[in-house]
Amino acid sequence: MTETRPDPGRRTHLGMRPGELDSKWYAKYWNPVMAPLPEHIKEAIDLGPQAPPLCLDLDNAGTLSEAGYQELENGYSLFDDGSMHIATLTHLPRVSPDMVDWWFWWHATETERYKLWYPRAHLYAEWSGGTADQSAPYRERYVGGTSFVDEYVGNVLGRLAIRFVLPSSLGFSDDMLDPDKATVICGRVGFSDVPLDWGHLVHYVRRVNSGAEMRSRFWMGGKHVAPRGGASLTGELEKVAEGVRHLGDGQARAMVVHCSQEMNHLAGFLPDIFDEFRRREQV
Question: For residue 212, what are the β-bridge partners?
């Protein structure tokens, strides 16, 4: 696995410059106008940090596959060790779990595709690893790979490496993940320019009557900070680690907004872009 981004000096810009989408069949799906933040997310932010016992522990992440809802489906909490927990619920009309697996594979290899997802925050994307087998199920195409991305969370620019891991590593059973009924995206979040991880993410997607719903969870900072690839947590790397060990209220709120906005925007065009992709595959 590539431990840091192959091209660490690469920079780009928000939005699309003239001509950037001229040769892209998916150009019609670029829409820089984003919907307002959902009311249930506004209410969750207004409530402020929630009691830590209401939060899902990382060791119990697999319980997201159980029926019903948990104590904290929207909002955030701050912990004594400096870590934070984020939860958001996104309604995905006309979306299937299989479409979400397709998106996490398809979008990661081109910056322009990544920008479709969140025009106000996504800057750059590069992909490393995974399988080259285009006949494999969509989930298998991204698990084991790393998505190197630049994006804003609030007004803070992050240069991230998101390593997609097997759902079973976080307690999910393959028997519960029929792509027509449910899927889950699991990842380890770190920096792309230094070998340091500082969070975990889970997006559990299940069928509902109108399409699907995504239950997102993040565990970041505090005890989740660790070097990767055999690196030693000394010197400059220790300074970087200290910067993400103690996360605050502003960062947590920004993360709730970021996740909700990007997933709601994706929901608006995912069924159509997926259907067109499938049609083009059959030509």
Answer: 92, 207
**Tokens in use for 138?**
């969509």
Residues 108, 148, 112: CA angle, nearest 5 degrees = 40
Instruction: Give the mean pLDDT of the chain.
Output: 94
Say whether 55 sits in a helix, a strand or coil.
coil
Query: Is the predicted pLDDT of residue 200 greater than 50, yes or no?
Result: yes
Ramachandran region, residue 144 (left: φ > 0; alpha: ψ -120 to 50; beta: rest): left
Q: What is the mean pLDDT of residues 233-260?
A: 96
Closest listed residue to residue 87, CA positions, set 64, 120, 117, 108: 64
User: Model-level pTM?
Assistant: 0.95
The Cα 86–Cα 74 span in angstroms is: 8
Domains and CATH numbers, the chain: 37-63+70-282 (3.30.530.20)
Amino acid letter for position 210: S
Summarize pLDDT for 59-90 with one digit per residue, the tens: 999 999 999 999 999 999 999 999 999 999 99
CA-CA-CA-CA torsion for 183, 188, 190, 193, nearest 10 degrees? -80
User: Do residues 157 and 150 make contact, with C-beta atoms less than 8 angstroms apart?
Assistant: yes
Question: Rounded CA gap, 86 and 258, in Å?
Answer: 11
What pLDDT, on the 0 to 100 scale, is given for residue 130?
A: 82
SS3 state at 271: helix
